[in-house]
Specification:
Length: 140
Amino acid sequence: MDIPFEQCAGEIGVICMQIQEIRDKEKKQTKQTPKRGSRAKKQEESQPQEESKQEQEKKPLLVPKGTRDWMSLEEIKVPETFLQFTPGIAKQKAVEESIEKNGTVDKPIIIDPDTHELLDSYSRYFVAKKKNLDRVPVHY
């Protein structure tokens, strides 16, 4: 049936048109994904987010190079000299990105092994506290 629809008259023409429409629909369906309603799209969008949260929970924490131990933030004593300052926004954002990506700070927090007093890396401590991390990597 390679004749144009206009040349087919009567019932034959109707049958030609129906066959042509069926072929067109089959081609479109194989090339395009079927259209879905807004509910289906919202469900599809929410599923990857839920999966990524589950993947993050299952993914083990990155152990930064130089880590000697893991310690609770409550165990670390912060000197008054550090508490007087707020780390810069750029440093905070960098540490926040690391926490979101790796689940912990990018480098260990440096503390005194005997007194557990913070010696360096206050910006990492500050952001970890802000993000409510349970424990952080430390170096003596």
